[in-house]
Automatic annotation (TrEMBL):
GO terms for cellular component: large ribosomal subunit. It comes from the Bacteria. Residues 160-190 are annotated as: Disordered. GO terms for molecular function: large ribosomal subunit rRNA binding; structural constituent of ribosome. One of its GO terms (biological process) is translation. This is Large ribosomal subunit protein uL10. PROSITE patterns: RIBOSOMAL_L10. PANTHER family: 39S RIBOSOMAL PROTEIN L10, MITOCHONDRIAL. The gene is rplJ. Keywords: Ribonucleoprotein, Ribosomal protein, RNA-binding, rRNA-binding. InterPro entries: Ribosomal_uL10 (IPR001790), Ribosomal_uL10-like_sf (IPR043141), Ribosomal_uL10_bac (IPR022973), Ribosomal_uL10_bac_type (IPR047865), Ribosomal_uL10_CS_bac (IPR002363). The keyword Translocase does not apply. Residues 179-190 have a biased composition (Acidic residues).
Length: 190
């Protein structure tokens, strides 16, 4: 078998992974300890992100004629890719968070929904909350006015219930307040 025939299954594997991907992030993970690498892979796997180290030439060949061909310029030195099909920001978010504790992890670049981002751009993408977080914030924003309106109505109802008893209670102190005013005031002692 020729070398090309041996490498073609790997190229096909990479192509299949990135075919319907929402995002692909290229990282340099040199210097990570085995424990750090295991922990990183576990976090990525739990988020539904595929993470694997491939040869740069095989990745370049797999990325040909796709949106991910833009990544060719950063494919130098040891590289790994994190691929997500569902949550476009998940790989960047997890890798950036993990990179804060593991100094040897470097995000080189990425393509998110067809747009190329360099390392600084990927930091901005990593700051974007997940879809679930955004939906929960939206739901909270939608529920907030309704909740506040319900509180106001509840306070009005409570005050309305107290106001039926309040006039009788207010009249008694008013009568007492008038009585002492009619009595002669004592002259101050000199």
């Amino acid at each position: 078998m020729a070398k090309v025939e041996l490498k073609q299954p790997i190229v096909d594997e990479i192509s299949a992974q990135v075919k319907d991907a929402a995002s692909v992030v290229v990282v340099d993970a040199r210097g990570l300890t085995v424990a750090e690498d295991t922990q990183l892979r576990k976090q990525l796997r739990e988020a539904g992100v595929t993470y694997k180290v491939y040869k740069n030439t095989l990745m370049k060949r797999a990325f040909e004629r796709t949106d991910f061909a833009q990544l060719d310029e950063v494919l130098e030195g040891p590289s790994a890719i994190a691929v997500s099909k569902d949550d476009a920001t998940a790989p960047a978010r997890i890798l950036a968070k993990f990179g804060k504790t593991a100094q040897n992890l470097e995000i080189k670049a990425g393509v998110v929904e067809g747009t190329f981002y360099d390392a600084k751009g990927m930091a901005a993408v990593a700051a974007v909350p997940s879809r679930e977080e955004l939906l929960s914030k939206l739901l909270g924003s939608l529920q907030s006015p309704i909740t506040n309106f319900a509180r106001v109505l509840n306070q009005i109802a409570e005050q309305g219930g107290a106001s039926t008893e309040a006039p009788a209670a207010e009249e008694a102190p008013a009568a007492e307040a008038e009585a002492p005013a009619e009595e002669p005031a004592e002259a101050p002692a000199e």
